[in-house]
Design brief:
single chain, 241 residues, alpha/beta, Metallo-beta-lactamase, Chain A, seven-stranded mixed β-sheet, six-stranded mixed β-sheet, 7 helices
């Protein structure tokens, strides 16, 4: 796998992340390009050895200045700390930062100046050519203000930490070992099963053909039912006494 090249994983969707064997999990920013609309999901860490990889991969398909939207599913530094570095390239207020209200209260501590557009459950962002992104709130998975994004054209769910995994033996696409890697991630990070059940109920009628988590591996359509079943059966809150 070329370290400096984006990998197209669906129609207009590119993986621009990297495996991180030292941390034991991957970081998976994604880029969506539709005409003149360019969306970057969860841009990632600001550490030079991380940011430079993501930057090179984006630049392998499009100039960074073309980015219109940065969607931040929650405020953790592995998702959002690089926003000021992207702002330095794109320019203040030359793009939109999109998050929920609760996430937006914490994001400015990273030091960027661009205003944040806040979304609510079910809001839709219309891109070029009529392509639409729906935003779905996912409270307590694992942050109160977390959300996910659903690309209505390709039926792709950008799931943030939901369906994520720890894995030293990392692959871009999930394989038969992925459910155990998911379990190791979810059981300590998710506090209560009701949060999972609430989210599962929200998306039960959605047609989902691909899941793109922020850590771990991309889940293709044929493997999604097994991963959903496993998610619903994990013994979450495992650090509670």
């Amino acid at each position: 796998m070329e370290n400096n090249k984006a990998i197209q994983v669906n129609d207009g969707i590119y993986w621009v992340g990297f495996g991180d064997p030292k941390a034991g999990f991957s970081n998976n920013p994604y880029l969506l390009i539709e005409g003149d609309s360019v969306v970057l999901f969860d841009p990632g860490s600001r550490l030079p050895e991380h940011f430079n990889i993501v930057k090179q991969k984006i630049e392998s398909v499009i100039p960074i200045e073309k980015i219109n939207y940065i969607v931040v599913h929650h405020q953790d530094p592995d998702l959002a700390a690089s926003i000021p570095l992207f702002e330095d390239i794109i320019g203040v207020d030359n793009f939109e930062i999109i998050s929920t209200l609760r996430t937006s209260l914490l994001l400015p501590y990273y030091g960027f100046r661009t205003e944040i557009t806040t979304i609510e459950d079910g809001d839709i962002l219309q891109l070029d050519n009529g392509r639409e992104l729906m935003f779905i709130t996912s409270p307590y998975l694992h942050f109160a203000g977390a959300h996910v994004s659903y690309d209505m054209k390709t039926k792709t769910l950008f799931s943030s930490d939901i369906f994520a995994a720890f894995s030293v033996d990392w692959h871009l696409y999930a394989n038969e070992n992925y459910i155990e890697a998911m379990r190791i991630f979810h059981e300590p990070y998710i506090a209560h099963k009701s949060a999972i059940e609430s989210f599962a109920n929200k998306i039960k009628d959605f047609e989902i053909k691909m899941i793109c988590p922020q850590h771990g591996s991309i889940i293709k359509e044929e493997f999604i039912p097994k991963c959903v079943e496993a998610l619903l059966n994990f013994e979450v809150g495992s650090w509670l006494i």
